[in-house]
Design goal:
By secondary structure, the chain is mostly helical. It contains 5 helices and no strands. Helix 1 crosses helix 2 and helix 1 packs across helix 5.
Length: 73
C-alpha cells in the first residue's frame, strides 16, 4: 500500500516528539539521535505497521532499533 509522504513526515515528527519526552531530550536532540542510528529509515520502511501501534509501543520499537545500531538510550 502506498502512503502519502506528508502522512509519513507528520508521523515522524509526532514520534520524535514522544521519543524526546520519554528520554528527556529536546526534539532536535531526539531527531538527531534517531537519524544518526538509522531510526528514520526504520520508521519509513515500517510505516505501514508502526503507525498502527500506540506511541508508547512505537517509541519502544524505535529505541530498540537504535540500540541495535549503536544507540545507548
Amino acid at each position: 500500500m502506498e502512503y502519502k509522504i506528508r502522512d509519513i513526515c507528520e508521523y515522524i515528527i509526532a514520534l520524535v516528539n514522544e521519543f524526546a519526552k520519554r528520554f528527556g531530550l529536546t526534539d532536535r536532540q531526539a531527531y538527531n539521535y534517531i537519524h544518526r542510528h538509522k531510526g528514520v529509515g526504520f520508521i519509513e520502511k515500517n510505516y505501514g505497521i508502526i503507525h498502527t501501534l500506540d506511541f508508547s509501543e512505537a517509541v519502544d520499537s524505535v529505541a530498540i532499533y537504535c540500540r541495535h545500531t549503536g544507540g545507548k538510550l
